[in-house]
Amino acid sequence: MKVAVIGIGVAGAYLMNQLSSLHDVKVTGFERMEEKNHDAVCAWATCDNVMNEYSKRCGLDFENYVLHDGKRMTVDIGKGNGSDGDGDGNSSMNINLKGMVSYDKLKLIQDMIKGTNIIFNKVPEKNQLEQDFDLIVDSTGFHRHYLPKLKDELWIPCIQYKVKYDKNVPFDDFYLKAFPSLSGYFWYFPLDNGYAHIGSGDFRRKHTNEFLEFFLKKYNCTIIKKVGRPVRITPPSKCIPFNDGRKTIGVGESIGTVYPLLGEGIIPSTICADIFINNMDNLDNYYHEILTKFKIYTLVYKFIKMKISNNFSVFKNFFDLIKIYNHMKMQENRYGMEVNILDMLKLTKI
Ligand SMILES: Cc1cc2nc3c(=O)[nH]c(=O)nc-3n(C[C@H](O)[C@H](O)[C@H](O)COP(=O)(O)OP(=O)(O)OC[C@H]3O[C@@H](n4cnc5c(N)ncnc54)[C@H](O)[C@@H]3O)c2cc1C
């Protein structure tokens, strides 16, 4: 079977690694970036309890990629723009972390694809792909380049800087500032040696620039890189079809595997790629497993949408919130943090 994997992000790299070892599969990867500029646009936070296992399957030790091992995340829920931004405790809460780390995402991707057959700097034509391959995987993330466009989509525009602090770092651990109505948040994720990713995503676009500018002014740093990219938070149930009725099938963020409450897509997209490998020969099973595995994402998405549009009602939707809380509470090791109902109520301003 000849398989093309288009888009070498987390999902594509995992697929390349795993499919290359199958005897009856000949896999070719395509990536639009040049090899020397290959990047992984993302804040690079994940949970090592889960990534350990998937890295091991690729013959790699995840601990070698960890840049910062989180102990505590400060979440600022204050109303003000800058005044509460220092996590001084007036309007902030501390969440104990259980495995949340920042890691060198690009290096892990590069090591996963070592020795596999990838053509960089190439956006292949669909017609050509259909002539040359039996199966085409669209792992182009947000772009969903080879799949039918979706009508009712929700995505959060984000801006992120990689920065370096020469003297004092603003925080020694993970920091978030939640924007009103859960329309997004600002993040400060430490990397190593004074480097950090600071970024902001806001559905309303209002707070992103404001808070980023405030933060950049307040804490003197050298800007290494600036990127902008949206993150899809439409869940898999609303990213149907996953295929185009011919040879193309979506894997990863292209079919909505991003946890909408956090904008977290590394683990879900890796899980999605793994589910795909186990169901390559049966598309119905693939649909079924993805929709089952990510069922809760539909509820979380509905909740976020209601909060953003100020339609959330404590009376009508309280049980939805409890379901989401239960889901995360039962999977603290998966999310890499302690989950506490009071924090959740505070965060959601209930
Ligand atoms: C600013 C930002 C910060 C984030 N931070 C985090 C975080 O800290 N933790 C977390 O878990 N998630 C985070 N996410 C979400 C996460 O990055 C994604 O959900 C995840 O990487 C999706 O993986 P993927 O492999 O499906 O797609 P991607 O990782 O987006 O990879 C897609 C690849 O396809 C390539 N491509 C696109 N179009 C084409 C084409 N036509 N032809 C060839 N190649 C193409 C791209 O260049 C890219 O390499 C963040 C997202 C953003 C935008």
The CATH topology is FAD/NAD(P)-binding domain
* Overall number of structural domains: 1
Q: Roughly how many Å is the radius of gyration?
A: 20 Å
Oligomer: single chain
CATH architectural label: 3-Layer(bba) Sandwich
Q: Report the total helices.
A: 11
Order of helices and strands: EHEEHEEEEHEHEEEEEHEEHHHHHH
Low-confidence runs: 82-89
Number-wise, the strands total 15
What proportion of the residues form beta strands (DSSP E)?
15-25%
Give the overall average pLDDT.
Answer: 94
Secondary-structure-based class equals: alpha/beta
Termini separation: 53 Å
Q: For the report, how would you describe the main beta sheet?
A: 7 strands, mixed
Task: Report on the architecture of this protein.
The chain is an alpha/beta fold. The protein has a single domain, classed as FAD/NAD(P)-binding domain (3-Layer(bba) Sandwich). It is built from eleven helices and 15 strands. It has helices at residues 10-20, 48-57, 105-112, 126-132, 206-218, 266-278, 283-293, 295-308, 314-330, 332-335, 341-347, and strands at residues 2-6, 26-30, 45-47, 66-69, 72-76, 92-96, 100-103, 118-119, 135-138, 155-164, 174-178, 184-190, 195-202, 222-232, 248-250. It has a seven-stranded mixed β-sheet, with helices on one face. Strands 8-2-1-9-15 form a five-stranded parallel β-sheet, with helices on both faces. Strand 12 and strand 13 (195-202) form a beta hairpin. Helix 1 packs parallel to helix 3 (105-112) and helix 1 (10-20) runs parallel beside helix 6. The chain is globular and about 60 Å long. Residues 82-89 have low confidence and may be disordered. Residues 6-12, 30-33, 41-46, 123, 139-143, 145, 158, 160, 199, 229, 231, 252-254, 258, 263-266, 269 line the site of flavin-adenine dinucleotide. Flavin-adenine dinucleotide is lined by residues 6-12, 30-33, 41-46, 123, 139-143, 145, 158, 160, 199, 229, 231, 252-254, 258, 263-266, 269.
